[in-house]
Design brief:
The chain has 135 residues and is mainly alpha-helical. It contains six helices and four strands.
């Protein structure tokens, strides 16, 4: 995915050199995702012998090897329970021991995968006007 550089048009180095380009382009690395956990957080969690007591949505998604936008769907389907009673639009935290225990449960992983697939199946069928692939 290409993205424009951080400079405004009149301060862009390529624009100032007379290349005729209004803005230079910066190529974002393919492995970088906008909702992904920061690299320093990922390194910190991989080096730890003792994990933090609670995980936020990005960290939980990283532990479960799913996208961050899939976590709210798992909460909605009651497959993943946040700590306490957070407001609907509030920041949600998850108990580390609970998430690690779920990550070891093969039956729960199958339920989680099916829930994510069902979400995308419904979303795609709404987008395609109700046409569903019979596979």
């Amino acid at each position: 995915m290409k993205d424009f550089c951080k400079y405004p048009v009149r301060f862009c180095p390529k624009f100032r050199t007379g290349t005729g380009v209004k803005r230079c382009r910066v190529v974002r690395p393919a492995e970088t995702k906008r909702n992904d956990m920061r690299d320093d957080q990922r390194q910190f969690l991989t080096l730890l012998d003792h994990w933090p007591a609670r995980l936020n949505v990005e960290q939980t998604a990283w532990v479960l090897n799913i996208q961050t936008h899939d976590v709210p769907e798992l909460v909605t389907k009651r497959l993943l329970l946040p700590l306490g009673n957070p407001p609907r639009s509030g920041v949600k935290y998850f108990a580390t021991l609970y998430v690690l225990e779920l990550a070891r449960d093969v039956k729960w992983l199958a339920k989680m995968t099916n829930a994510i697939h069902e979400k995308w199946r419904e979303k795609n069928s709404r987008r395609d006007g109700g046409l569903d692939d019979a596979a």
